[in-house]
Design a protein that fits this description.
Number of domains: 2
Strand content: 5-15%
Strand order of the largest sheet: 1-3-2
Shape: elongated
CATH superfamily of the largest domain: Winged helix-like DNA-binding domain superfamily/Winged helix DNA-binding domain
CATH architecture of the largest domain: Orthogonal Bundle
Number of strands: 6
Structural class: alpha+beta
Number of helices: 10
Oligomer: single chain
């Protein structure tokens, strides 16, 4: 970071770096800016990301939120055998994939894609893992709860956004999914193009409670 080069002031770089190191949770650019009297922090984030790219710690963006994490090739040094994630059941794996590719989606919509009923316990497992959240209610008769993935889901699978989701064949090849039946494969292959979540059909669950 040569101070003679054009770019964000060194004081701003250091302030952004300090905030991210101290933060208990990932921060959005807007949240970082709010701590720094509204400063434009995007150039500083980009420069810090480039600075840390060859180091043992990387600055990464996951779901429009920024955080430091161990470089992928160094992760094995910190891995603990006791912290191995319990392998998801076939049902939970299918539900997680459907939510990721179709969110926001209701339980009835999940069941329509899977062709079988989905127990509340399956959704509970995914929410306890921190990968799925309640995203509001569908603005239709009955006002069903709708579900979406979380920043933790993106972080666990190393995705910057949902647009980076791999195809079902890539997931299988990477060993992230157990083999699923042809009907589920077909449902995933025929998924609609991912687009930003519509805001007119969502309602804050706290406001509607």
């Amino acid at each position: 970071m040569n101070p003679d080069e054009q770019g964000p002031p060194d004081d701003l770089l250091r302030a952004v770096e300090a905030l991210l190191f101290a933060a208990e949770t990932p921060l959005s650019a807007e949240e970082i800016s709010a701590h720094l009297e509204g400063a434009d922090v995007k150039p500083a984030l980009a420069q810090l990301q480039a600075h840390y790219a060859p180091r043992g710690v990387h600055l990464v963006e996951r779901g429009r939120r920024w955080q430091f994490q161990t470089a992928p090739d160094m992760a094995h040094l910190l891995r603990r055998e006791k912290d191995q994630l319990r392998r998801l059941s076939r049902a939970a794996t299918e539900v997680l994939a459907i939510i990721a590719y179709h969110e926001p989606v209701s339980r009835a919509e999940i069941e329509a894609i899977r062709g079988v009923q989905t127990s509340a316990g399956t959704l509970d497992v995914l929410m306890e893992a921190g990968w799925v959240r309640v995203a509001g209610r569908r603005d239709v008769p009955g006002r069903p709860v709708i579900y979406a993935t979380t920043p933790d889901f993106l972080n666990h699978f190393g995705l910057a956004s949902r647009r980076d989701l791999p195809g079902i064949d890539e997931l299988k090849a990477a060993g992230l999914l157990d083999p699923v039946d042809d009907a589920f494969d077909e449902a995933m292959e025929q998924r609609a193009d991912i687009s930003p979540e519509p805001t007119d059909s969502l309602e804050n669950p706290e406001e509607s409670a």
